[in-house]
Amino acid sequence: MASSWGECLKLSIFGGSHTAAIGAVLDDLPANEAIDMDAVLIQMARRAPGKDRTATTRSEADLPQILSGLLDGKTTGAPLAMVIENTNTRSKDYSLFRSHPRPGHADYTAAVRYGGANDIRGGGHFSGRLTAPLVFAGAVCRQILERRGVVIGAHALQIGKAGDAPFDAAAVDPEELKRLSQVYFAVREARAEAEMRAEIEAARQAADSIGGVIECAVTGVPAGVGSPMFRGVENVFASLLYGIPAVKGVEFGAGFGVSELRGSENNDAFYYDENGTVRTRTNRAGGVLGGITTGMPIVFRVAVKPTPSIGRTQDTVDLAAGRDDTLTVTGRHDPCIVPRAIPVAEAAAAVALTDMMMERGML
Ligand SMILES: Cc1cc2nc3c(=O)[nH]c(=O)nc-3n(C[C@H](O)[C@H](O)[C@H](O)COP(=O)(O)O)c2cc1C
């Protein structure tokens, strides 16, 4: 597989849903950076299963064990290696998905790609659980970035028909991002959470699942980060965001909405602010021009598909018998991935930016 990433910062993620452990190795992190493990645990808890706003930030199940790279709470410059033990690996029979691939999941494609050798238990390396090491890496990078004034936060923008208020991309408030980045089920307007929960509950009761959109913003990134053609901000962010299972779309700024605009409507006019810094009055570019940061907030959205494993009986194939068949998936599956994927999108942004700011000698 291809689970190593990065040019300057190097991230490697390993493990499967039911292997002994999952984990990450972060290499070439800046040395002498203080890492607050309590802050890391808050991020891990936001993603962990079965959590809610009332949950403790301590999750035994997703407790990262640091093997190397940290000494007296600071990065040493050596590879930062972390594992999370898989303690909740019930010996459930997943062999059914070998012969009867779940529609919407990776069972079929993984079997083709790896000749049936892939670990199918709990989704193996394709499991959403593999986003825990990514959140760990993001939580470490986020602290290094915050020390340089970079703040990252995201919220559920849409779940089914329920929507939250989008960011004003030209005036994102870092204090709001800080608030969003500490909570489970982050929304900007409180009423949106209730409406979204109702959408999720309706899907769950129908033995179904539902998708949505996450909107993420980053403030404090100086102008001049990113290296086109293929190491631009959009490229690098997207390469990590599409590594998150269930992500089917990524857009920056006005995104696909640009198709409805004229140049006069889409262009962001430049001006000097009171500090003599070049800014733009609007930010339909999402903080990126030519793959390079403008100094305005980076704003992007991520489309998350409905959870593939649903309780309804679905058509599939019996690969062993070579005929059409049906499948009813049992077990516990989130009816909506969006709330748990919010910290994952933030983590992807943190890792991507750390790599790109290192490239520019800013870290
Ligand atoms: C945090 C998180 C949790 C997930 N939980 C589930 C789940 O409970 N059941 C499921 O079928 N898929 C779940 N997924 C999605 C699958 O892993 C994903 O759809 C599958 O690997 C196929 O990849 P693709 O959707 O990117 O094509 C989850 C994804 C994430 C990010």
Outline the secondary-structure elements:
Blueprint: E1 4-5, E2 10-14, E3 21-27, H1 37-47, E4 65-68, E5 70-71, E6 74-75, E7 80-85, H2 95-99, H3 107-113, H4 131-146, E8 151-159, E9 162-163, H5 174-180, H6 190-205, E10 212-219, H7 233-241, E11 247-252, H8 263-266, E12 270-272, E13 278-280, E14 288-289, E15 292-293, E16 298-304, E17 314-318, E18 323-327, H9 338-359
Helix pairs in contact: 1-4, 1-9, 4-9, 7-9
Bound molecules: flavin mononucleotide.
Describe the structure.
With 363 residues, the chain is α+β, with helices and mostly antiparallel strands. It has one domain: Chorismate synthase, AroC fold (4-Layer Sandwich), CATH 3.60.150.10. It has 9 helices and 18 strands. The chain has helices at residues 37-47, 95-99, 107-113, 131-146, 174-180, 190-205, 233-241, 263-266, 338-359; strands at 4-5, 10-14, 21-27, 65-68, 70-71, 74-75, 80-85, 151-159, 162-163, 212-219, 247-252, 270-272, 278-280, 288-289, 292-293, 298-304, 314-318, 323-327. It has a 5-stranded antiparallel sheet, covered by helices on one side. A 5-stranded antiparallel sheet has the order 9-8-10-16-11. A two-stranded antiparallel ribbon has the order 5-6. Helix 7 (233-241) packs antiparallel against helix 9 (338-359). It starts with a strand and ends with a helix. The model is unreliable at 53-60 (pLDDT under 50). Bound molecules: flavin mononucleotide (FMN). Residues 105-106, 123, 126-128, 131, 244-246, 305, 307-309, 333-334, 337, 340-341, 344 line the site of flavin mononucleotide. Flavin mononucleotide is lined by residues 105-106, 123, 126-128, 131, 244-246, 305, 307-309, 333-334, 337, 340-341, 344.
